[in-house]
Specification:
The chain starts with 5 loop residues before the first helix and ends with a helix. It folds into 2 domains: 1-42, no CATH class; 46-105, no CATH class. It has 4 helices and 2 strands; from the N terminus they run H-H-H-E-E-H. Helix content is 49%, strand content 6%. A two-stranded antiparallel sheet has the order 1-2. A hairpin with a 6-residue loop joins strand 1 (71-73) and strand 2. The chain has helices at residues 6-10, 13-22, 24-37, 83-104, and strands at 71-73, 80-82. The chain is flat, with a radius of gyration of 15 Å. Bound molecules: zinc ion (ZN). It holds the Pfam family Cas12f1-like_TNB. GO terms for molecular function: DNA binding. Keywords: DNA-binding.
Amino acid sequence: MEDLNVKGMIQNKKLARSIADVSWATFVTYVTYKAAWDNKKVVPIDRFFASSKQCNGCKEKNTLLSLSDRIWVCSNCGQEHDRDINAAVNIKEEGIRILRASKSA
Ligand SMILES: [Zn+2]
Protein backbone atom coordinates (compact mmCIF):
# COMPACT_ATOMS: atom_id res chain seq x y z
CA MET A 1 0.00 0.00 0.00
CA GLU A 2 1.31 3.41 -0.91
CA ASP A 3 2.19 5.61 2.04
CA LEU A 4 0.52 8.72 0.65
CA ASN A 5 1.33 12.19 1.90
CA VAL A 6 -2.34 12.92 2.62
CA LYS A 7 -1.72 16.21 4.44
CA GLY A 8 0.32 17.50 1.52
CA MET A 9 -2.20 16.26 -1.05
CA ILE A 10 -5.13 17.96 0.68
CA GLN A 11 -3.28 21.27 0.36
CA ASN A 12 -3.53 20.81 -3.41
CA LYS A 13 -6.99 22.23 -4.22
CA LYS A 14 -7.42 19.97 -7.25
CA LEU A 15 -6.84 16.84 -5.14
CA ALA A 16 -8.35 17.82 -1.80
CA ARG A 17 -11.92 16.73 -2.52
CA SER A 18 -10.97 13.35 -3.98
CA ILE A 19 -8.61 12.54 -1.13
CA ALA A 20 -11.14 13.59 1.52
CA ASP A 21 -13.86 11.51 -0.20
CA VAL A 22 -11.74 8.39 -0.05
CA SER A 23 -10.68 9.04 3.57
CA TRP A 24 -7.38 7.35 2.93
CA ALA A 25 -6.26 7.18 6.57
CA THR A 26 -9.47 5.37 7.59
CA PHE A 27 -9.12 3.00 4.67
CA VAL A 28 -5.52 2.16 5.69
CA THR A 29 -6.66 1.53 9.28
CA TYR A 30 -9.41 -0.89 8.14
CA VAL A 31 -7.16 -2.77 5.74
CA THR A 32 -4.44 -3.09 8.40
CA TYR A 33 -6.64 -4.58 11.13
CA LYS A 34 -8.53 -6.82 8.72
CA ALA A 35 -5.20 -8.12 7.42
CA ALA A 36 -4.06 -8.80 10.99
CA TRP A 37 -7.22 -10.90 11.64
CA ASP A 38 -6.29 -13.05 8.69
CA ASN A 39 -2.58 -13.23 9.54
CA LYS A 40 -1.69 -11.18 6.43
CA LYS A 41 0.83 -8.39 6.12
CA VAL A 42 0.27 -4.84 4.89
CA VAL A 43 3.49 -3.52 3.35
CA PRO A 44 3.85 0.26 3.20
CA ILE A 45 5.44 1.53 0.00
CA ASP A 46 7.61 4.62 0.22
CA ARG A 47 5.74 7.73 -0.93
CA PHE A 48 8.66 8.61 -3.19
CA PHE A 49 8.42 5.29 -5.08
CA ALA A 50 7.53 6.24 -8.68
CA SER A 51 4.43 4.03 -8.89
CA SER A 52 2.63 6.02 -11.60
CA LYS A 53 5.59 7.18 -13.67
CA GLN A 54 7.38 3.84 -14.01
CA CYS A 55 6.48 1.64 -16.98
CA ASN A 56 5.57 -1.77 -15.61
CA GLY A 57 6.92 -3.41 -18.76
CA CYS A 58 10.45 -2.03 -19.11
CA LYS A 59 10.80 0.01 -15.86
CA GLU A 60 11.55 3.24 -17.77
CA LYS A 61 10.37 6.38 -15.92
CA ASN A 62 8.02 8.74 -17.73
CA THR A 63 9.19 12.05 -16.26
CA LEU A 64 6.68 13.97 -18.40
CA LEU A 65 3.61 12.25 -16.92
CA SER A 66 1.14 14.74 -15.46
CA LEU A 67 -1.83 14.14 -13.17
CA SER A 68 -4.29 14.59 -16.04
CA ASP A 69 -2.68 11.80 -18.10
CA ARG A 70 -4.95 8.83 -17.41
CA ILE A 71 -3.60 6.71 -20.28
CA TRP A 72 -0.03 6.96 -21.56
CA VAL A 73 2.33 5.17 -23.91
CA CYS A 74 5.86 4.30 -22.78
CA SER A 75 8.35 6.12 -25.00
CA ASN A 76 10.88 3.33 -24.46
CA CYS A 77 8.91 0.11 -25.12
CA GLY A 78 5.65 1.41 -26.62
CA GLN A 79 3.38 -0.28 -24.08
CA GLU A 80 0.11 1.56 -23.44
CA HIS A 81 -0.80 2.02 -19.78
CA ASP A 82 -3.90 2.84 -17.81
CA ARG A 83 -2.33 5.10 -15.18
CA ASP A 84 -4.03 3.48 -12.17
CA ILE A 85 -3.57 -0.13 -13.27
CA ASN A 86 0.11 0.47 -14.09
CA ALA A 87 0.61 2.08 -10.66
CA ALA A 88 -1.25 -0.75 -8.90
CA VAL A 89 0.93 -3.40 -10.56
CA ASN A 90 4.09 -1.46 -9.65
CA ILE A 91 2.93 -1.12 -6.02
CA LYS A 92 2.10 -4.85 -5.82
CA GLU A 93 5.52 -5.82 -7.23
CA GLU A 94 7.34 -3.42 -4.90
CA GLY A 95 5.42 -4.85 -1.91
CA ILE A 96 6.42 -8.40 -2.90
CA ARG A 97 10.04 -7.26 -3.36
CA ILE A 98 10.07 -5.69 0.14
CA LEU A 99 8.48 -8.80 1.70
CA ARG A 100 11.04 -11.09 0.05
CA ALA A 101 13.90 -8.84 1.16
CA SER A 102 12.61 -8.86 4.75
CA LYS A 103 12.35 -12.68 4.75
CA SER A 104 15.88 -13.22 3.45
CA ALA A 105 17.37 -10.68 5.90
ZN1 LIG B 1 8.20 0.69 -21.17
